[in-house]
Amino acid sequence: MPDQTFLVIDTAGAAPEEGGPPAERILAGSPGFRTWNIEERDGGLYAGVWESTPGKWRIEYDEWEFCHILSGVSVIAEDGGEARTVRAGDSFVLRPGFKGSWEVLETTRKEYVVRL
């Protein structure tokens, strides 16, 4: 069957990949991740849904990522910069070189598109 040209981002019936941040990056709590990687293309393009339980960890981006928050509340703080609270309905881009922390205050679910 050929690739679909219209792909719905839907987690129903899909098994998530489970994990969390590397232990050496955790700053507080015990965050757990669930990721439904719906699209994966040659050249390093990914799209899907990610969810995390409460906790705080260091983040360092080598990739470009578009995020749209579906539910929950998180605080993303850039080293030497502003801390931003994101919640349902917020959209943003994290560019390569972003360094800081991600703190999940309430279990957070987002849709994402990542380009390596």
Describe it.
The protein is an all-beta fold and 116 residues long. It has a domain at 54-116: Sandwich (Jelly Rolls), CATH 2.60.120. It contains no helices and 9 strands. It has strands at 17-19, 26-29, 33-41, 45-52, 55-60, 64-78, 83-87, 91-94, 99-115. Strands 1, 2, 3, 4, 5, 6, 7, 8 and 9 form a 9-stranded antiparallel sheet that branches. Strand 6 and strand 7 (83-87) form a beta hairpin. It is globular, with a radius of gyration of 14 Å. The chain starts with 16 loop residues before the first strand and ends with a strand. The model has no long low-confidence stretch (mean pLDDT 96).
Short descriptors:
single chain, 116 residues, mainly beta, Jelly Rolls, 9-stranded antiparallel beta sheet, 61% strand, UGlyAH_Cupin_dom, RmlC_Cupin_sf, RmlC-like_jellyroll, Cupin domain-containing protein
Radius of gyration: 14 Å
DSSP, total strands: 9
- What is the CATH architecture descriptor of the domain at 54-116? Sandwich
What is the class of the domain at 54-116 in the CATH system?
A: Mainly Beta
Q: Measure the end-to-end span.
A: 27 Å
CATH topology group of the domain at 54-116:
Jelly Rolls
> In percent terms, what proportion of residues is strand?
over 45%
The coarse overall form would be globular
What are the secondary-structure elements, in order, as H or E? EEEEEEEEE
Instruction: Find the CATH superfamily of the domain at 54-116.
Output: Jelly Rolls
Mean pLDDT over all positions: 96
The helicity comes to under 10%
Main sheet makeup: 9 strands, antiparallel
Estimated structural class: mainly beta
**Tally of contiguous helical segments:** 0
- Unreliable runs: none
